[in-house]
Input
Amino acid sequence: MQNPSWSHIEHDADIGLRARAPSRESLFEAMGEALTAVVTDPASVRLERQLDIHCEAPDDALLLVDWLNALIYEMATRRMIFGSWRVKFDGHKLDARVEGETVDRARHRPVVEIKGATYTALSVEQDSSGNWQAQCVVDV
Output
């Protein structure tokens, strides 16, 4: 696997996120992109402002939920949308720099508001070939 990929998966009234990537860093970045894609096309987001995010959890699955919820919190409180995610790890500590802009309703045409990442269908795994995959359901 050379490039990360993500998709949305069906889940009752909510939306599932799924990603595959060659590294844990790019996996979490892809999940950030999948999260933005629930709201708008990530390619439409201008990289005008940077923000640092820090999370820590006892394992990768809980760290993924914390990461997604930190992004959701910043999106809601700063009225921002993100188009770039750079993640670094030190064990189960995540340091990220995200870039984006204030939501422009006319250009971004937000589809839904994300309420939070859940533990439903949550998983983060590395396969035998070294690639990473994750999934998580977000409440909309």
Observations:
- Helices lie at 24-39, 60-78, 105-108.
- The longest strand covers residues 80-90.
- Strands lie at 5-11, 14-21, 49-56, 80-90, 93-102, 116-117, 123-126, 132-139.
